[in-house]
Design brief:
A hairpin with a 2-residue loop joins strand 1 and strand 2. The protein has 2 domains: 120 residues, Ubiquitin-like (UB roll), CATH 3.10.20.740; 140 residues, N-terminal domain of TfIIb, CATH 2.20.25. With 307 residues, the chain is an alpha+beta fold. The chain has a 5-stranded mixed beta sheet with strand order 2-1-5-3-4, sandwiched between helices. The protein is built from 8 helices and 12 strands.
Length: 307
């Protein structure tokens, strides 16, 4: 047989192992006592982590899993035996041997007074998460009297996408963190002023269209009181037509680019009225750009009008 008559077969190359990250080293654990029960948590965990691991419901306001704790509201305080002051559970690191009380008289009184001070000075009518807290701790903001100082002020409506009603702002710092290093890195807003006059402000207090804002709306997503609100929701609320009980919620993928952000469309009366994104999504962690959060109006145009 001639060489040209031979059929040569090339064997497949040997399989190559796919590179993978080395396994994370095992973290040491610390054991703390939460209301008399021992709980083991990874080293570096916070008291809030430990309390949640123990099944304790600790109220929070300025805390969010995707943001750096700023210890602003003091609603999450707990009592650590031997400590002089109450500790903010959201940021205090759990240490071995700690004995923590989450519902002592001292803790409840502190939370009650904090809630009363907030409710006496701020409009909490759209802060849905705070109403149950006020009831739980028997907070009575009216006891400060009708002359209690407030942060009441006109709504700032200077752009087409969202409004700012700082009479509802509790200075939780969430919007500042979301605009800064925790998400957007735009740094369009910060806290200005001191004491009771502290407030969220653009640089030099310029109108929003003149600021560094890129209208991502991530500040709206983290605001717990409705101080920041997208225009469609604000308009419906002003008309008394905002009806969450009639809304359907559907997850989809943003159509604008290839990143693949998850959009949660809130639909009322066959119209998209708000777009959010889930915090647990690995791509967005609740954050979106201006197109993803506000660019949904084309879907509300009737088919006939699209031509």
């Amino acid at each position: 047989m001639k060489e040209q008559d031979l059929i040569w077969f090339r064997l497949p190359p040997p399989p190559v192992a796919v590179p993978s990250a080395p396994p994370a080293p095992a973290r040491r654990t610390v054991t703390v006592e939460i209301d008399g029960a021992a709980v083991a948590v990874p080293q570096g965990a916070t008291l809030l982590d430990a309390c949640r691991a123990a099944g304790k419901d600790i109220p929070t306001l300025c805390y969010l899993e995707t943001l750096t704790p700023v210890n602003a509201c003091r609603v999450c305080v707990v009592e650590v035996e031997g400590a002089r002051v109450l500790a903010p559970a959201c940021s205090r690191t759990a240490e071995s041997g700690m004995k923590v009380h989450t519902n002592s008289a001292r803790v409840r009184t502190s939370r009650k007074v904090v809630l009363e001070l907030l409710a006496s000075s701020v409009d909490l009518s759209t802060a849905e998460s705070l109403a149950p807290m006020l009831a739980e701790y028997g907070a009575d903001p009216a006891r400060f009297g009708a002359d209690a100082a407030t942060v009441a002020q006109p709504v700032k409506d200077d752009n087409d996408l969202y409004v700012r009603d700082y009479s509802k702002c509790v200075l939780c710092y969430k919007c500042v963190e979301a605009c800064g290093t925790d998400a957007q890195h735009t740094f369009a807003i910060a806290v200005a002023g001191r004491g009771f006059h502290a407030h969220i402000s653009t640089e030099l207090d310029v109108p929003l269209p003149e600021s560094a804002c890129v209208y991502c709306g991530n500040c709206i997503a983290v605001c717990p009181t409705g101080a920041l609100m997208a225009k469609p929701e604000f308009t419906l609320r002003q008309a008394g037509q905002w009806a969450p009980e009639r809304q359907t919620v559907t997850d989809t993928i943003c159509p604008y680019c290839g990143v693949g952000c998850t959009l949660t469309a809130h639909v009322q009366d066959e119209r998209i009225v708000k777009v959010t994104s889930p915090l647990e999504n690995g791509v967005t962690q609740g954050n979106l750009c201006v197109k993803g959060r506000f660019g949904f109006e084309y879907a509300n145009v009737p088919d006939k009008a699209r031509g």
